[in-house]
Amino acid sequence: MLEPLFVGAGVALITPFDGGGVNEDVLRQLVRFQLSGGIDALVVNGSTGEAAAMSADEQQRAAEVVVEEAAGRVPVVGGVGGSDTREVIDLARRARAAGVDALLVSGPVYNKPPQRGVVAHFRAVLDAVPLPLIVYNIPGRTCCNILPETIEELAGDPRVIGVKEASGDIAQVTELARRVGDRVPLYSGNDDQVLPLLALGGQGVVSVLANIAPGEVSHMVHAFLTGDLDAARRIQLDFLPLIHALFAESSPIPVKAAAAALGFDVGGLRLPLVAPSPDVERALLDRMRERGLPVRERR
After folding, report:
1. What is the per-residue pLDDT across 92-145, written as a single tens digit (0 to 9) for each?
2. What is the spatial distance between Cα 116 and Cα 222, in angstroms, rounded to a whole number?
3. Alpha carbon 257 to chain centroid distance?
4. What is the four-CA torsion angle of 239, 241, 242, 248, rounded to 10 degrees?
């Protein structure tokens, strides 16, 4: 297998906003919180980071800030996605200029290309930008399911260094592991399915939950990989109600509210995303308290 860019827990960072754009000071606070919690990789400008509602300039600056604050302590992965391959290449070039270590490239959104178009899309990005690439399959957002046989074809390129699998389809994940699991590192893109993917030979997770519990997510993955299955299983199951709460509405709606409840001034969401409903937020904070997270009471 290729040497993994990271083993363990990567965080799909939220992006804090203020009236002028990306709140760089708070973004640095979030990075420091992740590093102090033992996170293994930082992913900036993913779907959890609201990149679809950010300008190219904002995405580049957010990546620059994360790279600066990480200072080489853990890998930084730049999320890149869109429906126009040319624009995706431009975002990838900007991510490289910002200093990221690798790209996380999602399937092309909205256009619903055939699988050969998906292959052509990824190869165009690879050929245009000299950075390694993690394939990101998240059909619930892109309407483009990257099939295991397609990833197997892409995995023949040594520049493809991983797969973040977020289809939620365990049968598909199992077939993917059969085809490429001994060649390319696999990462779970679903917080509620980390252990099943690890059991199939995966190397870790790119996590939403880690935004508010980086230490626990990292501990879960490393416990499993070092053979402490009971500890890993306990964390996965104990955090399941909180994970469900984090996805009760479209992510990152709940997780941004959760980060605010921990005291981070992350600002609001960009339309068309809106604040969580009162019932969703109430349940979310209850689940956070149950797990012992330091929720701050509203004044």
Report:
1. 999 999 999 999 999 999 999 999 999 999 999 999 999 999 999 999 999 999
2. 36
3. 17
4. 150
Q: Torsion over CA of 257, 206, 164 and 18, rounded to 10 degrees?
A: 40
Active site residue 110: no
SS3 state at 200: coil
37-69 pLDDT, tens digit each? 999 999 999 999 999 999 999 999 999 999 999
One-letter amino acid identity for 207?
S
pTM: 0.96
Helix/strand/coil percentages in the chain, nearest 5: 50, 15, 40
* DSSP one-letter code for 4: P
Rounded CA gap, 39 and 218, in Å? 6
Catalytic residue among 110, 112, 136, 256: 136
- For the question of residue 112 being annotated catalytic, the response is no
What residue has token string 């999320």?
79
Options 110, 112, 164, 187, the catalytic residue: 164
- Which tokens hold the place of 73? 């302590």
Cα-to-chain-centroid distance, residue 90: 21
